[in-house]
Input
Amino acid sequence: MSASKLHAAGVLQGGRWRWWEVVLWAAALASPWALSSHSLIINEIAILALFALSLDLILGYTGIVSLGHAAFFGMGAYAAALFSKLVMPDPLVGLMVGIACATVLGAICSVTILRGTDLTRLMVTLGVGLILMELANKLDWLTGGADGLQGVVMGPLLGRYEFDLQGQTAAWYSLTILLVLFILAKRFVNSPFGATLKAIRDNRLRAMAIGIPVSQRLSVVYTVAAGAAGAAGALLSQTTGFASLDLFEFHRSADVMLVLVIGGTGWLYGGVAGALVFKLMQDTISAITPQYWTFWIGLFLVVLVLVGRERLVRPWTWFGLGKSSNKGGKV
Amino acid sequence: MLTILFDGVAYGMLLFILAVGLAVTMGLMNFINLAHGAFAMVGGYITVLLMQRLGVPFLLCLPLAFLGSALLGGVLERTLYRPLYHKPHLDQVLFSIGLTFMAVAAVDYFVGSTQQNLQLPEWLKGRTELGEGDWMLGMGHYRLFIIAVCAALTVALQYILTKTRFGSRLRASVDDQRVAAGLGINVNVVFLSTFAVGSGLAGLGGALGADVLGMDPSFPLKFMIYFLIVVAVGGTSSITGPLLAALLLGVADVAGKYYIPKMGAFIVYFLMILILVWRPQGLFVRQGGKA
Output
């Protein structure tokens, strides 16, 4: 009896807030004010962090390898941008619409990822992304086609705060939404529900055997992750006032996977840390070679995998412990 | 209508040659290799550059493209791919995406981002027409050539796989790697040579398809999905599966683009998703093989 309680506490203890987390978020929320000239990139980092967070829910916590997560990102972005252009310019309502659309899409698509191997899932997620890109391309009367959706004008936030050119409002807006969704995600993964997701990731067959409804859990988490990705997309199109086909591109799905892997999967701060590193790296490298920066990203990925993902964040294992890399087989 | 069917078959044959190496490597080592298109691009660029810069005849370029990509594939297999066979799929996906990005940027850097044109020799440029009206069959000579080469290759591959000693070793390794190794088959060598030949075939396909598919640095990304469709739909346990899948894909794609241009690539992706939801292991799989 007491042992099972202890275990339950062990599984669920990640839900507590520690002092450094509070400090971190306070610093994050203060950053647009302290570094006001860098607000634009802070905004981008927050959005990317949210996007990576949503991927972490399915990749890190549930073990679904998805190459089409940009589908939901783009869906949220287009939905929010179209809503503000055609219906009303209020950002928060637009955000809700973006989330809702992406969630519905995620619920529909979750049917496709329930069966088959990793390869099948990879293909299906990739295919969904491509279909949406084609849709956005072909429905040019609605989405502007290859030129992108222009002329999106955002109303003031909460009716008071205008989006300024410097991007301070945008950065605060994105950071706040990120924080809210982060708190929700933290509750989500540290609940008993989240524990079952991890069980499915670690061993699907056993999870099934102890009575976890695997398919149902998978579709729920996929839907939730889609909604969060939609929120990230909506934030991007709202703060930039623009949505283009580029949102659905394959490289966006690949980038977000890279972001998550840099920061570490199965850890909510992984997306945040990865987004920070990735954006700063992108900024630096593309300042040096704007056209060929994908080469360095590729090289980084190759080295990262060859060295071992786990070891990147643990520098003390870099030297002398060659054997430990073999343990990387199980993730 | 027959013309469309013909073009579709040519396209499908090309896709088959491009993707067959991927099917075998995936089946053999359960390795998700998204960088397969990069090898095809290497073959295509070898051909284009040799012809443009050095004036090498087209027919000589094809085996050179094959050898170049095969060599590259062999070297990369030994140095980079082998440590990753037992890593999780996520690592393999990341690694091969990284390789693809590098290949794309490198080609962009060295050759430029414009689409490369292939100067076909005169005897491949013509077109023969048979019949008339709705049933007219117009055959571009080049497409006819593609079909002939690919059909010959398919027959040769089928022969090697089913009749030779190497083929039976390969099939044994695909079925169960550990038992095959236990019986004294050197699985590593089997895999190295298969990977090299697969990459070489991709290179040959890229060389043949440089004119039809278009050669530019984004080639591996653009066609990655097509190769994967062939493999995922066709299954990895035989070469007839991918062949049928490739033909189906080729005909569906050409016909879809011709009849309903507005729908473009939808049909193909949509069909793929439907098929994979319906039969996640692929359409043409043998029962009883290793899952």
User: Anything to note?
Assistant: Chain A has 15 helices and no strands. Residues 34-288 of chain A form a domain with the ABC transporter involved in vitamin B12 uptake, BtuC fold (CATH 1.10.3470).
